[in-house]
Amino acid sequence: MKDESRDDLIDVNALFLGPKSENRDFFMQMLRFIMNDHADWRICYQPDDSPAFSEAQRSEPRFQATLQRTQQALVELAGRLQLSSVPWFSPRYLGHMNADTLMAANLAYMLTLLYNPNNCAYEGSPATTAMEIEVGRQLARLLGYHPDRAWGHVTSGGTVANYEGLWVARNLKSVPLAVREAVPELVTGRTEWQLLNFSAEQSLDLLDRVKAAGQMDAVRARSARGTGVTAGKLGKILVPQTKHYSWTKAADILGLGQDNLVFIRVDDRFRLDVQHLRETILRLAAEHTPILAVVAVVGTTEEGAIDPVHEVIRLRQELAAQGIWFYLHVDAAYGGYARAMILGADDQPIDLAELPAAFRRHHVFSEPLDWPDPDIYAAFRAMAEADSITIDPHKMGYIPYAAGAVVLKDRRVLELISYFAAYVFEKSEDNPMLLGSYIMEGSKSGAAVASVWTAHQLVPLNITGYGRIIGSSIEGAHRFHDALRTTPPYDFHSRRFRVHPLVRPDFNMVDFAFHEEGNPSLAAMNELNVRLWEKCSYKSGRMYSEDFITSKTALSREEYGESPCRFVRSLGIPEAEWDRLGSVYVLRSCVLTPYLVHQTSFVEYWGNFLRSMSRALQAVV
Question: Which of 81, 99, 256, 553 has the fewest other C-beta atoms within 10 Å?
Answer without folding.
Answer: 81
